[in-house]
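Hi F.,

I've been meaning to write this up properly since the lab meeting, where we talked about keeping a consistent format for the predictions we share between groups. The idea is simple: the sequence comes first, exactly as it goes in, then the structure tokens exactly as they come out, then a line or two of notes. No screenshots and no reformatting. I'm using this chain as the first example so we have something concrete to point to.
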Amino acid sequence: MFFLFRFFSKKNERSKSFQIKIINEILNEKKKIVNEIKNILKNIDENNLIKTKHFIAQHNERLPELDVIGDFILKKEFAGILKQDTNKFKIYYEIDEKHDLIVILCIKSTNPDIKISLITCFEQSSDRRVRKDEKI
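Output, unedited:
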């Protein structure tokens, strides 16, 4: 975002239409990534989900009552996503109106399959994803 601020703060160097074009290109690229992740998660085989030792320990300690894989990853569409690294994502699933399930995962391509390493999971207030002034 700092890049965008510097990019657009140079007065009279760039036209508004050019600025809007750049913003639209960035948004379209982000939409492509989100749609690609949705498709991967929608079509992933449970055998290609790799539970790391850390994930298993955190799941058992924090959320033993939830079937993170069966009820969320394989069945629900996520409510939000943050890219943390090249292939690492923070995925938000709604548990209920006040709580989200957060799953950190890493997507690995191993031709012809895609493998997903589940890194950790935890519960978080949905207020951290949706600001109060954005709620309807």
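Notes:
The chain is about 40% helix and 30% strand.
The chain has a mean pLDDT of 87.

If this format works for you, I'll send the rest the same way.

G.
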